[in-house]
Amino acid sequence: MLRKLGFPIYGLIFLMLLLIGCSEQGRQYGKSPDHTNFGSPSENSTDSERAYQTQQFSGPVSHNNKQLAYSQFLSNQLNALNGVNTAIVMTTDQYAYVALMMDSTAIGTKNTTRETNNQGTSKGFYNDHAPSNDSMSSQDLNTGYNNYETAVHHDLLTHRFKQTIAEKIRSLQPNLLDVYISANRDFLNKMNSYAQQSWKGNSLMPLLTDFNQTVERVFGTAQVLP
């Protein structure tokens, strides 16, 4: 009787091993849809001391940066994380500033409902002042329509999601004093325009004053409560 059942049993075991192998390969070579849950307490890697906007716990901060550069390396590293569709990382003499938009490769990245309209486009969505014109700026990475997710305020991103991003950056560039993270659409588009200048081989130093004013507006300078 056992000999008669032997082939189906061995076949089932082989199929199970094959599926496990495929699953392991997916984890190693690409993003696994919904593999990461940033809303789950089981994400032990994010239970350590907070790694982003830490200096604002102690008192007011200043974004009076003296240097500015786009980091292709750090951007690429964050792009590989589940939950991140696109990341643009700017580094200064002290800090890293991350602009990003999210995708569906992880859950628990945001505290709120969707703000991006993915129901289709119509005239005027891209340009309120010219309803008959569907064109948009070539520098805009996200328009809010048929795009990946953004969030108006950085506090709308979950702690565990931001913690994972900040820990990744600090592990790769430990000399940085702090990390600031936002998925604000306007901030993302502006940092994309900066990145385009860098790709062209242009220095970002002429944009430093505008950058400092922008990050001060996005992240604020006042002390925040833990």
UniProtKB/TrEMBL annotation:
<protein>
    <recommendedName>
        <fullName>YhcN/YlaJ family sporulation lipoprotein</fullName>
    </recommendedName>
</protein>
<feature type="compositionally biased region" description="Polar residues">
    <location>
        <begin position="35"/>
        <end position="62"/>
    </location>
</feature>
<feature type="region of interest" description="Disordered">
    <location>
        <begin position="30"/>
        <end position="62"/>
    </location>
</feature>
<feature type="region of interest" description="Disordered">
    <location>
        <begin position="110"/>
        <end position="141"/>
    </location>
</feature>
